[in-house]
Design goal:
Layout lengths: L1 E7 L19 H6 L4 E7 L5 H10 L23 E5 L17 E3 L6 H4 L4 H19 L3 H11 L14 H13 L5 E7 L21 H13 L6 H31 L6 E7 L4 E2 L5 E2 L6 H4 E7 L6 E3 L3 E2 L3 H8 L21 E4 L8 E6 L2 E6 L5 E4 L15 H10 L20 H10 L4
């Protein structure tokens, strides 16, 4: 028995044709659905950004970044005869994913090739030294937005976007197929594609939905959307969306090529395939861009398609969460999921309560609960948010004041530790190498 888990960074369900989008951005899903795969229409990430969502997915634990370095994960319960591999190039979770030793093969591409990365510029080094001095002081006062404003006033975001800081879908697919070609028995392979993550369009010579963009235009758009989203014009917003959609289509083409390779190796029919995303992406839906905001649906609703001999195909409309993937993989390989896993096998019926955490825009903990057609968001030190998703699917009208009892009930369901600032298990800057820190900065994660 084999399983391939494909995760795509920043892939919003609302920008996928099979979820109602006007563009056919991810046609590879149709290929899977033609093979009696199951489409889950209401799958949600457990974090608004990669650093929380991916560790949660791999450990089947809320705030998985606190558990990534100990305890069971998606690979550890599998039988010894199952070859396991993880392939990704996102340094943001390089120190937060389960220990590479839990995989037989773990490929994070190392540091970037010298011809692609170069050394940090003098301006970049000055930027880091200044922010290292300023940011801890203002953050200790609980005013992280002030730290961001100081940064924005002194150093433009374009300084941290001097080059692409992840490997593209072509190279990622090549690495995955190279590993598969050397595997004879059963296997579990996790492949993470980065391309829909900003900076959009950076690797595209012929974007599917846009005119090509040069690096200077991409830098300008990314900087403006990240620092002054309120100033982005409608034409600029559409340009950003067109490049993002084109990145999704480019990724789809290479996932399709990966499936071709799986078939050429004679392994496709005997392999379960899970395709999903770690989180979504915002395009000013709630005033921001990228994935910095609270757990609104544009950041947590993700596509999920599963090709499995344990499923009957068709469509599942009940809520599912990414915590459910690890126990599903265990069952695929005939293993009972560890008791530490908090998710439930995807193919077990029944409604789910989805809990999602994280926000780069808030200084304290943010926790969202999605259940029975409602979305509740608790923000440390601020008023509750409550949305009636049936009447208000875009989460525009906060009705918390009208439903205090419902808010209190939701809050009581949140595990208490999720409302406390994480202090353990999350690596400090000193725990990662200078090269990794540089790549994190360039991705925009370490401001």
């Amino acid at each position: 028995m084999n399983t391939v888990l494909i995760t795509v960074d920043a892939l919003r369900a609302g920008h996928v044709g099979q979820y109602g989008y006007q563009r056919d951005t991810l046609p590879v899903l149709d290929r899977l659905l033609d093979d009696d795969s199951t489409l889950f229409t209401a799958a949600f990430a457990n974090g608004t950004n990669t650093g929380i969502s991916v560790p949660s997915l791999l450990t089947s634990r809320y705030r998985g970044d606190e558990h990534a370095r100990d305890g069971p994960n998606i690979a550890s319960p599998l039988p010894d005869e199952v070859s396991t591999a993880g392939i990704h190039s996102n340094t943001y979770f390089a120190s937060r994913v389960p220990r590479p030793a839990d995989f037989d093969h773990f490929d994070d591409f190392g540091i970037m090739d010298s011809e692609d990365s170069g050394s940090p510029s003098a301006a970049h080094r000055l930027f880091r030294r200044t922010m290292d001095l300023v940011r801890p002081t203002v953050e200790s006062l609980g005013i992280r937005p002030l730290a961001e404003r100081i940064q924005e006033a002194v150093f433009p975001a374009s300084l941290i976007m001097e080059q692409t800081v992840y490997e593209n879908a072509e190279k990622t697919t090549d690495r995955a197929l190279e590993w598969l070609d050397g595997v004879d028995g059963d296997f579990f392979l996790w492949v993470h594609y980065m391309d829909p993550h900003r900076p959009y369009g950076i690797d595209l010579e012929d974007p599917a939905y846009a005119e090509p963009a040069d690096e200077s235009e991409i830098r300008r758009l990314m900087s403006k959307a990240g620092i002054h989203p309120e100033d982005v014009t409608e034409a600029e917003r559409q340009r950003i969306v067109d490049l993002y959609d084109s990145d999704i289509r480019y990724t789809s083409d290479h996932i399709d090529r990966f499936l071709d390779g799986l078939q050429s190796l004679g392994r496709y029919d005997e392999t379960d395939i899970i395709l999903t995303a770690d989180h979504g992406e915002e395009f000013a839906d709630h005033g921001n861009y990228y994935h910095r905001n609270r757990p609104y649906d544009e950041l947590t609703h993700v596509p999920l398609v599963v090709k499995s001999n344990r499923g009957d195909g068709g469509v599942v409309d009940e809520q599912r969460e990414l915590l459910d993937l690890a126990p599903t993989v265990a069952r695929n390989h005939g293993v009972e999921p560890p008791s530490a896993f908090r998710g439930t096998d995807l193919f077990e019926g029944g409604p789910r309560r989805v809990v999602s955490t994280g926000s780069f825009s808030d200084a304290g903990p943010v926790v969202g609960v999605r259940e029975d057609g409602w979305k509740y968001i608790a923000v440390d030190g601020e008023e509750d948010e409550l949305y009636d998703l049936r009447a208000d699917p875009k989460e525009r009208e906060n009705v918390a004041a009208d439903h205090p009892d419902r808010c209190a009930s939701f809050r009581s369901e949140i595990p208490p530790h999720l409302l406390r600032e994480a202090t353990e298990g999350v690596p400090e800057a000193d725990d990662v190498s200078e090269d990794v820190q540089k790549r994190l900065e360039e991705l925009g994660y370490m401001d």
